[in-house]
Amino acid sequence: MDIKWDIIGTEGFRFMGKMNASISHEVKNVLAIINENAGLLEDFTLMAEKGMAIDPERLNALAGKIQHQVQRADRIIKNMNTFAHSVDETKKKVDLSEILVFMAALSERLATMKGIALEVTPPSTPIAITTDPFLVENIIWRCLEFSMAVTGTGKTVVLTADKKDQGASIIFSQLKGLSDASSRPPFPEDVENELVKSLGAQIVVNEGAGEIVLGLPEGPN
Amino acid sequence: MRILLIDDEVELVSTLAERLSFRGIDADWVCSGKDALKKIETTSYDIAVVDIKMPKIGGLELRKMMAEKHPGMKFIFVTGHGSEEDFRAGSEAAGAEYYLVKPVDIEDLTEKLKQVLKR
After folding, report:
1. Which of A102, A104, B2, B27 is the most exposed place for a label (fewest CB within 10 A)?
2. Backbone angles phi, psi at A25, to 5 degrees
């Protein structure tokens, strides 16, 4: 099969850059909040030195806020680390449900910026497939990016995964604008088609049901 | 002077307002472009300190919308993105008086607010 790896490679860099930019922005926000809370503590200290009474409850609440932001940063960095390591192996046994939950978490801020909520309903049992984790994440992102474009502001994209006989499916649903072919961007295009070919996968756009189904094989071609 | 702080991170914007109050500057705050537009319907502000990256209505778009209703209003942009040089160029093009990169230095913000009002 003729796969255009140059298209996949360029898209991979774009995808990595997009996610890293989003992560760094969120970390900046966390640092800014910690900075303000630490600054407020400093302000209180200066006031105390001038003889003003400081409520210990207020200090306790501030410490709690800082701890909360540290936990938030920890979650963000863990996701960043998982994302970075997804390029380690090109063939790996993965749980598709875990990847779906991970991709929703990684994309959450980008969705929020568009005013869109992501709702993941993972299956109760793991869905094991052997695949290239980074390319799977990349094609999920491409489907998600398109889904967000056709669901509209203030809407929700629902993500689910199903086990199939020879693999698994990821369904992106509640895509209200999918049926309006004249106003929506074309999908799938070259990038998605090449990613799908490289993974031995397929994309089915079901306009009537307002959903995209990404079918993935149980193992590599 | 009347100042409106706009940032989608509630903990950031509320703490910033409190710290400014300790420095003799009273500021109102909101967490979205939509709420900012609602706020300026009833209150006239001298300066808006606006986060560039916010959900739904971003800072640059919000500046245009607010300036249409209050042409005299001044703007200070804040961002967590990019290099200072890139951001400065973008902010100047968008008509901001100043730009600040997160994490914001409170004394720097206080000074810039005073400078904008003196103009």
Report:
1. B2
2. -65, -40
Task: Give the C-alpha separation, B26 to A64, whole Å.
Answer: 26
Residue A48, number of CB atoms within 10 A of its CB: 12
Cα three-residue angle A172-A176-A180, rounded to 5 degrees: 110
**What 8-state DSSP symbol labels residue B23?**
T
Smallest Cβ–Cβ distance between B56 and the set A39, A40, A115 belongs to A115
The identity of residue A149, as a single letter, is A
Whether residues A32 and B12 touch (CB distance < 8 A) is answered with yes
Number of A/B CB contacts below 8 angstroms equals 60
- Taking the Cβ of residue A153 and every Cβ of chain B, the question of whether any pair is shorter than 8 Å is answered with yes
Q: Assess A115–B contact: CB distance below 8 Å, yes or no.
A: yes
Domain A92-217 in CATH: superfamily?
Histidine kinase-like ATPase, C-terminal domain (3.30.565.10)
**Does B106 contact A39 at a Cβ distance shorter than 8 Å?**
yes
Q: What is the pTM of this model?
A: 0.89
- List, for residues B8-56, the tens digit of each pLDDT value: 999 999 999 999 999 999 999 999 999 999 999 999 999 999 998 899 8
CATH number of this structure's domain B3-118: 3.40.50.2300
In degrees, rounded to 5, the angle at the alpha carbon of residue B15 between the alpha carbons of residues B11 and B19 is 170
The answer to whether A195 and A12 are in contact (CB under 8 A) is no
ipTM greater than cut 0.85: yes
A31–chain B Cβ distance below 8 A for any pair: yes
